[in-house]
Amino acid sequence: MCEECGCGHGHEPDSKKNIQKSISINRSVTETNDNIAHQISHSLKEKSIFCINIMGSPGSGKTTLIEGLSQHLSPSELSVIQGDLESDIDKVRLEKICISTYQINTHSGCHLNSAMIKDAIDNIGLDRKKFLLIENVGNLVCPAGVDIGQHMNILVSSTTEGSDKPKKYPIVFIDSDIIVISKYDLKSAVSFDEKQYLGDVQKINNKAKMFKVSSKDSASFMEVAKFIEHMRDHFLGNAHHRHLHLPI
Amino acid sequence: MMHELAVTQSLIDLVVGECKKNNINHPKKIIAELGSLTGYSKESIQFYYDLLSKEMPVLAGTELDIREISAEISCNSCKKKSVITEPYIVFCDKCGSRDTEIISGREFIVKEIETKN
Prior knowledge:
The structure holds 2 protein chains of 2 kinds. Chain A is α/β, with parallel strands linked by helices. Chain A has helices at residues 31-46, 62-70, 89-95, 114-122, 165-168, 170-174, 194-204, 222-238, and strands spanning 20-28, 50-56, 78-84, 100-105, 131-135, 152-158, 178-182, 209-212. The model of chain A is unreliable at 1-6 (pLDDT under 50). Chain B has a 3-stranded mixed sheet with strand order 2-1-6, with helices on one face. Chain B has a 3-stranded antiparallel sheet with strand order 4-3-5, with no helix packed on it.
């Protein structure tokens, strides 16, 4: 019976009303995505497949990088997952040079997530593949920090976007293991201030390995290809952490 | 702006699940911590929370309190920890070493749920 008025409805006395409790949760909002990403990463490593997340603005040269790498790595050992809002233009482009490609259309989604990648992997054959290259949605903001099961992040950053990008979009630069300066042959034409750019990158990420490439110069992709081959060997042989710690 | 939609839905799913698990019928406040290196905008998350929580009766009147957490680096040379703020220069502010590791700033965590049961 209610101690307050004797009505039998179980009213709480004033002293017990509005007692505020605080329950400790301490859970990551991204844990569902991150758990799937962890499974992808582990499963690919078990299959000796090195997974690279390629990020960059629309038109920065992400697909061109894959085309360039395929001239120095065996196309049959590459598998690509392409992320775009709409169309299969890049899938068609890569399949013309015999690279097995799976297209994800995110429609309004601004980046790929691990559930999309898991679904894609379930639909592609990865037998005898050495590399899974994931070309993220063209965007210099959103893909950064979203774990999709990758073992390494590459940022493609073109001279035509300007030398102020490390200052304007620092987080994607911080999250990158390799930074590829693309359209390097256009450096002078677009007044790309390389010294400023490299100085700014050094201040926010002094561990990233830097490369310069041009679609007109197939050999410029060779060093990138050699480096990711080396990092794959290193990762499969020695790595204790899922994300790599690259030499400065 | 779309960037924060999915992550706000994840936050709501997590909180609704915790409310159910802990028999919380009327959460008063959700306290979350948002690291400065996540790239998420606090204002956008708040906007989407206000929109999406309207669909969840359990969250009627529940405040979302997002506390921003600065990123920190730890120096491998002198072991000092330093806060890094924009523009995210990762040199140690004590000894100037470039050999540093980012130790926080990438987290987005639901810390607590305050309730009046």
